[in-house]
Design brief:
Low-confidence stretches: 1-12, 19-24, 296-313, 319-364
Helix content: 25-40%
Distance between the termini: 45 Å
Strand content: 5-15%
Radius of gyration: 20 Å
Length: 368
C-alpha cells in the first residue's frame, strides 16, 4: 500500500525546490475571521487551501477553530496535539501536523493565540519556537489561518502580517454583529488598513452585497477603516455532501459554485505582489502570524485606528446601537449606489499596510 504521507512530502519538497529556482519563494498568507458557526468559513478555507495546493504551493492551514468546528474533522482527521504545544516545546512539530487529501497540511491551533502563547512558561520554549518556525518556513510557502470571530482578541496581531485579512458573515444580524465586533478589535489594535468582507451561504447575491454595503459605511464612519467587498460564496448543496464524504469539494464536485469561488480566491491570493510594496521576509511573517510579533510602534496609541464618528451616536453594529440596525432592503438595487458610496469614501481612508490582493478595488469570489 503506498505511503501517501511520504509521497506528499516528496511532492512538497520538489514543488518547494522548483519555486525557489524560479524565484517564487514569497510566503502567501491570509487570515480568515468569521462570525457565528455555520457561515461556511471552514469550507471556504479548506477549498481555497486545496486550490492553492493544485497551483503548486505547499499549503499549511493553521486551524484556530474549536475542536468541534475544526476543519481537520472535515477529512476525518483526529488531532494529536496543538500547534501551541509544538511552539512551546511540549511536542514535536510532526506530532501535530495532519496531512489531508488534496495535498494540504492542517495544524490544529485551538489553544494558540499570538496575543498570548499557551505554554510560554515551559523551559526552552523560545528555542522550541525558533526551531518550529524555521521548519514551517522551510516546508510551506502558503499559510491560511482560520479563526472564529470570538477569538479575534487573541489573533489580532496576525492581521498586521497577513497578506490578506478576510472577514465573513451571512446576512443575518447575529452573524454580521459577531464579525463586526472582530473588525473593531482589528481596527483598534492594528490600526488603519484595508480589510475584505465576504458573505457566506448567499442565496441572493444582491442582498448579500447590500448587507456588506451597510457594514462598510458603518466601518468608515466609526472605525475609519476601508472594508472592500470580496464577494459572495453561494449556498451550495455540494458542500455538506463533500464533508460527509470527507473529500475536498473540488475533487467530488469540481463544477459546484462554491468550488469555483474557492478557485477564484486562490487565484487572487496567488497574484504577484507589487514591487512598490515589497513583502516582509517569510520568517518575519511566520513570527507575526503565530507569535504575535507585530511591527508596531513604541506607543500603542499610534497603532490604533481609533473609534471615531459623530459624537454621541451609537455604532449601529454594537449592542448599544442594536436598535439602529437596518438589514438589506431587497426592493432596492444595491449594485450601484451602495458600492459607489462605499468605494468613493473608502479611497479617502489611508491604509497602514498595502492592499492585500495586489489588485485595486475588490476581489470577486464568484463570477458576476
Amino acid at each position: 500500500m503506498p505511503d501517501h504521507a511520504a509521497a506528499g512530502g516528496a511532492f512538497e519538497d520538489q514543488a518547494s525546490s522548483l519555486r525557489r529556482l524560479l524565484g517564487g519563494s514569497m510566503l502567501r498568507s491570509a487570515l480568515f475571521i468569521g462570525g457565528d458557526s455555520g457561515i461556511g468559513q471552514t469550507a471556504l478555507v479548506a477549498g481555497t487551501a486545496e486550490a492553492m495546493a493544485r497551483r503548486g504551493h505547499a499549503v499549511l492551514v493553521v486551524d484556530g477553530q474549536p475542536h468541534l468546528r475544526s476543519g481537520a474533522g472535515w477529512f476525518g482527521l483526529s488531532p494529536r496535539g496543538d500547534l501551541a504545544e509544538a511552539l512551546s516545546g511540549q511536542r514535536r512539530l510532526d506530532e501535530v501536523l495532519l496531512h489531508a487529501a488534496g495535498g494540504v497540511t492542517w495544524a490544529p491551533a485551538a489553544r494558540l493565540g499570538p496575543a498570548g502563547l499557551s505554554g510560554g512558561g515551559v523551559a526552552g520554549a523560545a528555542e522550541a519556537a525558533d526551531r518550529v518556525l524555521g521548519e514551517l518556513s522551510a516546508r510551506f510557502d502558503c499559510v491560511l489561518v482560520d479563526v472564529p470571530a470570538d477569538r479575534a482578541d487573541r489573533w489580532w496581531p496576525a492581521a498586521a502580517h497577513a497578506g490578506a485579512v478576510l472577514l465573513g458573515s451571512t446576512g443575518a444580524a447575529r452573524s454580521v454583529t459577531a464579525t463586526y465586533s472582530a473588525l473593531k478589535v482589528l481596527a483598534l489594535e492594528v490600526g488603519q488598513r484595508r480589510y475584505l468582507w465576504w458573505m457566506g451561504r448567499a442565496a441572493d447575491p444582491a442582498a448579500a452585497e447590500a448587507a456588506w454595503g451597510k457594514v462598510a459605511q458603518t466601518a468608515r464612519r466609526f472605525l475609519q477603516v476601508r472594508l472592500d467587498y470580496a464577494g459572495a460564496v453561494p449556498l451550495d448543496a455540494g458542500v455538506p455532501r463533500a464533508q460527509r464524504l470527507r473529500r475536498p469539494l473540488s475533487a467530488v464536485f469540481p463544477a459546484s459554485p462554491a468550488a469555483a469561488a474557492c478557485a477564484l480566491l486562490a487565484e487572487q491570493l496567488d497574484l504577484p505582489v507589487s514591487a512598490q510594496s515589497p513583502p516582509e521576509a517569510p520568517e518575519a511573517v511566520w513570527r507575526g502570524l503565530l507569535l504575535g510579533e507585530a511591527p508596531l510602534g513604541p506607543d500603542p496609541a499610534q497603532n490604533r485606528g481609533g473609534s471615531v464618528g459623530d459624537p454621541g451616536v451609537d455604532d449601529p453594529w454594537t449592542s448599544s446601537g442594536a436598535a439602529q440596525r437596518v438589514l438589506p432592503d431587497p426592493t432596492r438595487d444595491p449594485t450601484q449606489t451602495r458600492r459607489q458610496a462605499a468605494t468613493q469614501t473608502a479611497t479617502q481612508i489611508p491604509t497602514q499596510n498595502p492592499a492585500p490582493f495586489g489588485a485595486p478595488g475588490r476581489t470577486a469570489l464568484v463570477s458576476r
